[in-house]
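Researcher: Batch entry, complex prediction.
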Amino acid sequence: MTRIVLSRGDISRAIRRIAHEILERNKGAENLLLLGIPTRGVTLAERLQRDISEIEGRPVEMGSIDITLHRDDLRLRPPRPLSPTKIPVSGIEGKDVVLVDDVFFSGRTIRAALDALGELGRPSTVQLAVLVDRGHRELPIRADYVGKNLPTARSESVRVRLSPLEEIDEVVIEG
Amino acid sequence: MTMRTVLSNGVDLDGRRVNLEIEGDRITSIESAPVGRSHDDVDVVDLKGMTIAPALVDLHTHLREPGKEDAETVASGSAAAVRGGFGAISAMPNTNPVADTAGVVEQVFSLGIEAGLCDVFPIGAVTVGQGGEQLAEILAMAESRAQVRVFSDDGHCVSDPVLMRRALEYVKIFDGVIAQHAEDPALTRGAQMNEGAVSARLGLKGWPAVAEEAIIARDVLLADHVGSRLHICHVSTAGSVEIIRWAKARGIRVTAEVTPHHLLLTEDLATSFDPVYKVNPPLRSSADVMALREGLADGTIDIIATDHAPHPEEAKECEWDAAAFGMIGLETALAISNKAMVDSGLMNFSELIARMSSKPAEIAGYREHIDPLKVGRVASLMIVDRARTWQVDRQNSVSRSKNTPFHGTEVGCYVHDVMYKGSWVMREGTVLG
Amino acid sequence: MKLPRHLLSVDDLTRESAIAILDTAAELSKLSDGKMKKLPTLRGRAVVNLFYEDSTRTRISFETAAKRLSADVINFNAKGSSVSKGESLKDTALTLQAMGADAVIIRHPSSGAPQRLADSGWIKGPVINAGDGTRQHPTQALLDAFTIRNRFGRLGGGLDGLRLAIVGDILHSRVARSNIFLASMLGAEVTLIAPPTLLPVEIDQWPVDVSYRIDSKINEFDIVMPLRIQRERMNQGYFPTEREFSRHYGLNVDRVAKMKPDAVILHPGPMNRGVEIDAGSADSTRSLIVDQVANGVFVRMAVLYLLMAGSDHSLDHDTEGEGA
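Model: Structure tokens for the complex:
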């Protein structure tokens, strides 16, 4: 059984709203660094970057941080290929880093991202923006910006599709 | 009261019904009709259509005693021989001490009699210590109780051409024969496997075919020149077969042997780096295997000889370079030779048996085995179930060593029983005593 | 995509899996640039360097790679051949397994020893060949391919169309064997330049061109790789004198001047300066020898990660994962 929970319009409106929220809380874009977690977190971070730049009329820094090597569940699955980690030359020191990911679930990915960030320097703050929060946290981690709260059963799957990776933007729940 | 045995319902090598009667150590009758007398002192064995064949004769066996008894002894080697259907084996002299004196060959000879399972004929060394420098006391060995007629430095080549000439001349005294291990040592220093495309890929030092062929070419010409007999051990290359064919066509008195493993296995097995496949001479290409089979079929190669070479586990359970050369082969010789030659249609069973029994006996002069299975001859024979297939299992090896390359292979030709000089030494696949 | 369980030879790889290793190494190299030098990926795992031959540089390279992934490293310097001196390969392996080795990196003078170790069942984890006899040195070929790929801008791909020349003692070189078969697999055209005495028999069965002379062809290659020539070979009659070898097969500044403008020089090390390569060539701007060393660590990290970190031997391409 598959049901669509976010349409294309829902997604773009949610991103827009999160962009405003980030700017409000951080009082502008000057010290911001958006870091997307591959793969879809990067697509989302790019859209956030576009929206924030439009709203503020100035560019905002963006990069990606691959957390594969910091995962705590590596031995449970075959090895994964690495995705690019691209940090701007100015680094993360003293910045307000906003981690961006598509689905927030157990929290372990974010824990790995925090470990990875720890190797790179000391940001001023680390905040988390997610498109969908589906609950079932296994670690004491919370998101600062949430596109949509989606209560789900553990057995269900949440699938996020974003262009250009897929043909259309949508979020569905399967099972 | 002399023991009498009747073997009924058997077939001969050509598949015809045959029944044998044995009294004491001699065959007393061979009939196509069943021998119907039943007395209390007669053991009648119903062979149920199994084949009666002469016991086999091996011209190339390593028994390791004296000196390396952890690998094999004369007794355990004799038992392995019986399991393979052999009634006579020839103990190569590369023992420790080397069998280069009357004393050592007589010791080996006595150990064979003591084991009492088959004839053990010692082969004497050609040179002292097999060192290739000085002739051993060949005449003393020939006149000892062991009555040695075959001499070999096997394991090493008699590479000095002058020494080889002298040895060939010397054995004419008693019509003996030198059995040459053809391997030019300079060309094979450090060699690990056949030199070719496979060794190039595997980074293992190669053993070129020419190292064998060049020695054979030299020795057939020497034998011709001095008018002596020559025997070539374990021929392994197509080129060697061609040279021997040429020599025989010219009337040179050369004979040659091939091992069962060289009739079946090729160098590709070395890609596993499992040293069970490491042997001297090495496994060669499939073209060589084909040439050896054809050479055996057309008589260029006269006989099959096992080159049974037992080694303890630790000599094979290591990296290739460090492993010893050699494979055991007494127990599987008939089955593997049958698979390579009879199953492939190159030879019939009767001819195969001749090349593994009477022919080797002729070369070495083992009189009792030359004209077997006739009335009045010694009753050393084997009963073979040609229809029964079995799987080679290294754990069931009767030999003390387990280094067989055939583990897991399905074969036919099951040796069921063996009789030695009129007494059973193996019944239903189990060696007695 | 299937990854091999052990890395014993470049024959264990396909074009796909080789490129996956190179791509992983590429990401790892960027992480190191960006200061992320230590990763927790193999924390709690033990890697053993089982070296039966002296080799400081390769051992240190593997050690560095393992430590950057937070693995524990045990160095086991075994010497001597199996049967005649010291502990057998089997006993050493059983000891290491009992001590908790999760992976064994082995360098051995006997061709095929790593395969014996892998096939024996004495070791439970992956076996990685750091050089066996004259047979294979797969991580060397991988780091050479990585170095070439970077220099020629072939990120994400192979070595298609590039022309590689390997010069010198091919017969006794495991680096040559691994490079020939890996580079061909990745689409390069390989030429061997050596005197006939230093070429294996039946070389026509290999995916290579062969030339006995260097000068007429030196301007055709994108990469020239001279191999170390060992002095012992001289005494065994493979060539008459070092001088003759160097004069006719050595890479010197005159020959280097004739190379294509963008052509580069690699060398597996250690070098015999003045024999197969002169100082001017080794130190020239065309030489990537120093890069090779740095790249060695990234490639070995990639191999350790891909063979040890996951649960089985395939690469997990499922990117529609269950999220954060």
